[in-house]
Amino acid sequence: MAFSLSSRELETELISVIQKGAGGNASDFCKWIRMEIVKKFKEEPDITENDVITLLEKFKSNGDLVSGRFDSREYFLSDDSKFHKKVGTHDSYNILGKLDYSPLQYVKTRLEYFLRKNSVDEEEIIDVAIATIEAIENAVKYGDGEIVEVEYSIDRSRKFSISLLNNIKEFNLEDDIKRGKFTSTATLMRGMMVMQKLFNQVDLEILDDRKQASFKASRILGVS
Ligand SMILES: Nc1ncnc2c1ncn2[C@@H]1O[C@H](COP(=O)(O)OP(=O)(O)OP(=O)(O)O)[C@@H](O)[C@H]1O
Ligand SMILES: [Mg+2]
Questions:
Q1: CA 115 remoteness from chain centre
Q2: How far apart are CA 163 and CA 214, in angstroms?
Q3: Measured from the CB, is residue 207 less than 6 Å from ligand 1?
């Protein structure tokens, strides 16, 4: 049975996603609302993309949202939106590690918002976002599709630190060989290479006893 959301509850859920700084198209917002409801109630809500579009368009005509710079179907907070909340130097939240909930776009845009509010330079935001997306992609690809814990902060010395924790999906070597991860001797490992280039320090620990992966990385931010 699907979880039923009243239009007021739908609006409240949408506003809470918008307030985190996440931005994307109507389908992304729909997925993120579903993700929040599944996290809270373990059930899919019966929402339609049309209802979400109506609300997004209303916020846009009120001046609280603007179209994306690169894709006009995307919605982001306007500079003077009433939905801005105070952003600190630390953020932590759980996502569901399934592509179905558009977790990559969610973390990317929420992180970019956090970095911008912390006066990080735009070029550096791009680097940190690219590296983080690689890490989230791994947590989704190798995770069990359930909760991924996300946490990041900027300390007094302007060091950005991020940590992710995911359960590991049952390992299937046959599948890995088929999709070409392993040649006879090497794995692809492109992601780790990208992360090593864009972060100053990267560490992936496999917690065997708990079947979990703990990812930690940091980058010394330039002065802006
Ligand atoms: N969050 C994670 N959970 C479990 N295993 C992980 C996680 N992150 C990385 N790994 C392991 O580390 C390996 C290296 O990751 P990396 O991102 O470099 O390569 P990849 O994801 O296999 O391929 P690519 O990123 O090039 O598409 C992965 O193949 C996987 O076995
Ligand atoms: Mg990868």
A1: 13
A2: 7
A3: no
pLDDT-derived band of residue 179, with 50, 70 and 90 as boundaries? low
The structural domains of the chain, with segments of one domain joined by +, span: 1-83, 86-224
According to the model, what pLDDT value does residue 160 have? Answer: 98
**Is ligand 1 within 6 A of the CB of residue 179?**
no
Contact 128, 114 (CB under 8 A): no
The CATH architecture annotation of domain 1-83 reads Orthogonal Bundle (1.10)
For residue 187, give the ligand nearest its CA: 1
Strands (E), the chain: 65-67, 75-77, 90-96, 143-154, 159-168, 201-207, 212-220
Instruction: State which fold the 86-224 domain adopts.
Output: Heat Shock Protein 90 (3.30.565)
| pLDDT value of residue 189 | 81
